[in-house]
Design a protein that fits this description.
2 domains, 15 helices, TIM Barrel, 429 residues, seven-stranded parallel sheet, single chain, two-stranded parallel sheet, alpha/beta
């Protein structure tokens, strides 16, 4: 397959300036894709522009954060306020996905599906799907998007799989250190890992979101394993929008960077600067080779013994450090050690042992339940060994950890990650 570069403009339909920029960038530059916001004021104008350009790869830019929903707001009490507009940003949606998962999932599914159907009613064949403010990367929302992607046979979904190492190697600008770009990158990359979905398309520009210029395209390293790369970009003709400020809900659309991004799309020589099958630095290449060997050659039980061994040593080391260096009472040291090491244990078990792709929240809750039960047993056992049998505190904890390692494996395999493992087995059959 020939290597392909997708320059995708987000926010299509949001303002007249954005629509004009996408039109000009396609006609005169290298733009070849756009994501439509069907519930924005100038969506119909955007569709007309797209219909006159059938080669423009059009997708859906799901919007759950700004202006009005597609459905009646009364049907979306978690998503909308008394004014009928969306009321939540990324952080609030993330919080709701943890505290009101069932209700939020129902509303999100209904609204996203309504946006897909509205796009179809406008004559748009959605070839790809992503979202405004990247809210689809929130695990609960991502799961809904995947299900709807399959239902409506949408070809691709945007995944934040950019390698910060590769991007930083070829870019002089360190703006991501000061404008929140690095924090946003790590947050979305973390969610991408939790979502467990592997896209065949490499994503570029998360570190420099909405702040792209020609200098960011002098050399783009696309890691091996990807034949396509998507560049997310936000062009606009800000002079048009400055005369229609009443239509604007996000002042970022008037940023000079919108003009710089449009000008970047006029430079066709940029297409020659994408280097496919780029190698990582030595240590990263070594890690990927080890990971490949890990999953392909080692059985689940061997992986558990190795990961469990690491977690046991790590937990024991933290306990010893708190006990000896910080001179904590043994029960306080145990409590602090659990809170420090429990999430590391769950994350490593989930990925490096069971390769689970189940509901991350549900699995973490169940795994926490396992560790709370083990903690209670640990507390009782440790107290008995130390107080009744007069065993040294370090030796007592060591005895317990050998026992708990076996029990942990069984509980995780048949309780914490059971649903996901069952699905994997069924799919093999």
């Amino acid at each position: 397959m020939k290597n392909k570069v997708i320059f995708n403009a987000d926010d299509f339909g949001m303002t007249r300036g954005v629509n004009m920029a996408i039109k000009k960038a396609f006609d005169e530059g290298i733009l070849n894709a756009a994501s439509l916001m069907v519930n924005q004021q100038y969506a119909l104008e955007a569709v007309e522009i797209a219909k006159q350009r059938p080669e423009l790869d059009l997708g859906l830019h799901v919007n759950l954060t700004n202006e009005y929903p597609t459905l009646n707001a009364k049907k979306l009490p978690l998503l909308t306020g008394i004014d009928g507009k969306f009321k939540n940003g990324f952080v609030k949606l993330l919080w709701l996905s943890l505290t009101h998962a069932k209700e939020l999932k129902k509303e999100v599914r209904a609204e996203i599906e309504a946006q897909i159907l509205k796009a179809q009613s406008m004559g748009v064949c959605c070839k790809h799907i992503d979202s405004h403010r990247h809210v689809h990367m929130i695990p609960l929302i991502f799961k809904v998007m995947l299900e709807l992607k399959e239902k409506y046979q949408i070809e691709r979904i945007r995944v934040i799989n950019e390698s910060a190492v590769q991007t930083i190697r070829t870019n002089q600008s360190k703006s991501y250190l000061f404008d929140g770009g690095l924090i946003k990158y790590f947050l979305l990359k973390f969610f991408a890992v939790l979502n467990g979905y592997r896209s065949k398309i490499y994503f570029y520009t998360m570190l420099y979101t909405c702040k792209l210029s020609k200098d960011h395209f002098k050399k783009i390293l696309v890691p091996s394993g990807y034949d396509e790369v998507e560049v997310m970009i936000h062009p606009s003709v800000i002079e048009i929008d400055q005369h229609h400020k009443e239509d604007i809900f996000d002042l970022n659309v008037l940023s000079d960077w919108r003009t710089k991004e449009l000008n970047t799309l006029y430079d066709k020589s940029i297409l020659n600067n994408f280097v496919f099958d780029a190698q990582y630095p030595f240590l990263f290449e070594l890690y990927f080779k080890i990971e490949k060997f890990w999953f392909e050659r080692l059985s689940e039980k061997i992986r558990f013994l190795l990961v469990g061994g690491f977690n046991t040593v790590f937990a024991y080391g933290v306990y010893a450090l708190l006990l000896i260096v910080f001179r904590m009472p043994y029960l306080l040291a145990l409590i602090v050690q659990y809170f420090i090491t429990i999430n590391v244990s769950i994350a490593t078990m989930r990925y490096y042992v069971f390769q689970s792709k189940g509901d991350i929240v549900a699995e973490f809750v169940k795994a926490w339940g396992v560790y709370i039960g083990l903690f209670v047993a640990n507390t009782i056992g440790l107290s008995f060994l130390i107080e009744a049998l007069k065993v040294d505190a370090l030796w007592a904890q060591g005895f317990y950890l050998v026992f708990s390692t076996i029990v942990t494996y069984l509980l995780h395999k048949y309780f914490s990650f059971r649903k996901a493992l069952k699905k994997n087995k069924d799919s093999v059959k």
